[in-house]
Amino acid sequence: MIKAGIIGATGYAGAELVRLLYSHPEAEIAAVSSVSFEGQALSSVYPAYLNLCDMVCETQSDVVNKSDVIFAALPHGLSQELAKECDEKGKVFIDLGADFRLEDEETYKKWYGLDFIDHELHKKAVYGLPELNREKIKNTNIIANPGCYTTAGPMALIPALKNGLIKKEGLIADCKSGVTGAGRKPSQNTHYPDLNEGLAAYKVGAHRHTPEIEQTLTKVCGEKVDITFVPHLLPVNRGILATCYGKLNEGVTAEDVYKAYKDAYEGEFFIRLLPKGKCADIHNIKYTNFCDVSVFVDEHTRTLIAISAIDNMVKGAAGQAIQNMNIVFGLSEKTGLDMMPPAF
């Protein structure tokens, strides 16, 4: 059994890792930690886990020493030293935070206000979007697990950009997220009276996921790609719907578009291309690692409309992290993740 440790186990992403790893047939939770709840049982923080996971939150060092793979569900700025320690001890380190996602230090400094503390360590890190980088993921011990918007947006656009179906200019990602994406610590805009029965954009033109989305799309098509990314907060617990727009190149037909997406995602268990005319819906992917994709062509304006839906806590966080763990340890990617979504 793979011994898995979770650092930051009492945050939403950490708690989701516990939920998913509990049923994993090839892994067991070796230790968990939480600065805020050290010495307390995880089930005292999340009563749903009573008698299922009553593990006491230990120190970070305990988690590292007891585990083969360490999942770090921490805010940005807290993973670099931890990754260095894990690397030196030959442990697999999967970072659910942002510290290793951006390859350019100046870009990281601009958006997060921090420097790379070890450039060689960053060179070892692989961006953990399995559908793009699975071969590289197999050969690394440091994985930068993509976030929710940075998974949903690219999955909607990659086949179109990779096949030259749309222009690289004027791309738009209009995304809506469930409130768990904001983390466990409450804020005014996640306060129930402000959130309930509302829908509002936030961090318009200034969200930290923008350069990460652009980095992925740039790698896909080999040229610099810019995107207008606007996130919105939905009054639901989980789920992301990304509606993305791009202008079609001359001569591209709706059939060309659908074929490109079918070819790109055929054989990808977790990417489900929906039948023509069907719309991706967050209702249909809840609690799973699936990403549903639907594509449309607006003939009037010659615009591709590509829509993706993921569970931001699973494919957008914990589930994708476990998918990456499965790859590193030579397991089938769907091991422990092939649950069926609820029908209602």
What can you tell me about this protein's structure?
The chain is an alpha/beta fold. The chain contains 12 helices and 13 strands. Strands 8-9-7-10-13-12-11 form a 7-stranded mixed beta sheet. A 6-stranded parallel beta sheet has the order 2-1-3-4-6-5, with helices on both faces. The longest helix is centred in the last third of the chain and has 15 residues, at 314-328. The protein is globular, with a radius of gyration of 20 Å. The model has no long low-confidence stretch (mean pLDDT 96).
Number of strands: 13
Which class of secondary structure composition applies to the elements? alpha/beta
Average pLDDT figure: 96
User: Largest sheet, described in full?
Assistant: 7 strands, mixed
Shape: globular
Task: Provide the spatial order of strands within the biggest beta sheet.
Answer: 8-9-7-10-13-12-11
| Number of structural units classed as domains | 2
Provide the CATH top-level class of the largest domain.
Answer: Alpha Beta
Helix content: 25-40%
> Measured on Cα atoms, how large is the radius of gyration?
20 Å
